Amino acid sequence: MDIEEESADNRETHKNHDIYFVPGLRRGLLLLETVADARRPLSVSEIARRLSLTRSTVFRLTYTLRFMGFLEEVADSKSFTLGPRVLNIGYAYLASKDIIEVSRADLELLRDNTNVSAHLAIRDRKEVLYLSCVQTRSGFLSNLNVGTRLPAYATPMGWLLLSDLSSREIGLLFESSGFEPMTEQTPKSVAELMGKVSDAVVKGYVISRGVVEAGGSTIAAPIFDRNGKVAAAIDISGPDTAFDMTQIETLDVQEVVNAALRISARLGYVPKR
């Protein structure tokens, strides 16, 4: 990411509000995003290169963020990872999301009716962010816990969460993506991804086998807000052995779709007649 690159809208906003805009704060927040996106420790030199900043500027930023607990220095490596204070803010954000509380009872009922772990997620740019996981009472426990992030292009919930975007918006969002495969069924291009999103829109749900991981199945459905926009998505997912394959495309799908509609209704959504 080049810290100097900005959209026309952002440049106009800064021009009109220079008196309020704090460049140093922006640099610090972009630095945190850069370390988070790397998913490994980054040195001052690496951060400086990624943000097109001087090493001295990055040194001051990392010093301040480490002092405040937003960064941690990895012992003997002079590199940095996110600190615990970032997690505190993340949990505070999740706790403030009404949809988590609103959906809890329906996720538990969905879990009980299908005997498979149920999840709630939203889209954060190009990723699916898991907000809730209701574990099955028996069998295999889900490893998709709160805070898990997966690429939206490679997951059924991601296809549903992208369905509010136009083809052009999806193309722009993923034009520089490498489409790193999670399984053999991962879309390999923007065109393939758009096909998955289009199918999800037509059906109103997604049934997948071996998409997120080999030997696993998922049934996902969208959650709409009062404006009819896709606010989130839910799914049940687990190993193939957790599903009764004789009813996965009938009873199980209906359970997931009905749960999604109930949650949507609580958010004020009224289906079009």
From TrEMBL:
<dbReference type="Pfam" id="PF01614">
    <property type="entry name" value="IclR_C"/>
</dbReference>
<dbReference type="InterPro" id="IPR036388">
    <property type="entry name" value="WH-like_DNA-bd_sf"/>
</dbReference>
<keyword id="KW-0238">DNA-binding</keyword>
<protein>
    <submittedName>
        <fullName>IclR family transcriptional regulator</fullName>
    </submittedName>
</protein>
<dbReference type="InterPro" id="IPR050707">
    <property type="entry name" value="HTH_MetabolicPath_Reg"/>
</dbReference>
<keyword id="KW-0804">Transcription</keyword>
<dbReference type="GO" id="GO:0003700">
    <property type="term" value="F:DNA-binding transcription factor activity"/>
</dbReference>
<dbReference type="InterPro" id="IPR005471">
    <property type="entry name" value="Tscrpt_reg_IclR_N"/>
</dbReference>
<dbReference type="GO" id="GO:0045892">
    <property type="term" value="P:negative regulation of DNA-templated transcription"/>
</dbReference>
<feature type="domain" description="IclR-ED">
    <location>
        <begin position="85"/>
        <end position="269"/>
    </location>
</feature>
<dbReference type="GO" id="GO:0003677">
    <property type="term" value="F:DNA binding"/>
</dbReference>
<dbReference type="Pfam" id="PF09339">
    <property type="entry name" value="HTH_IclR"/>
</dbReference>
<keyword id="KW-0805">Transcription regulation</keyword>
<dbReference type="InterPro" id="IPR029016">
    <property type="entry name" value="GAF-like_dom_sf"/>
</dbReference>
<feature type="domain" description="HTH iclR-type">
    <location>
        <begin position="22"/>
        <end position="84"/>
    </location>
</feature>
<dbReference type="InterPro" id="IPR014757">
    <property type="entry name" value="Tscrpt_reg_IclR_C"/>
</dbReference>
<dbReference type="InterPro" id="IPR036390">
    <property type="entry name" value="WH_DNA-bd_sf"/>
</dbReference>
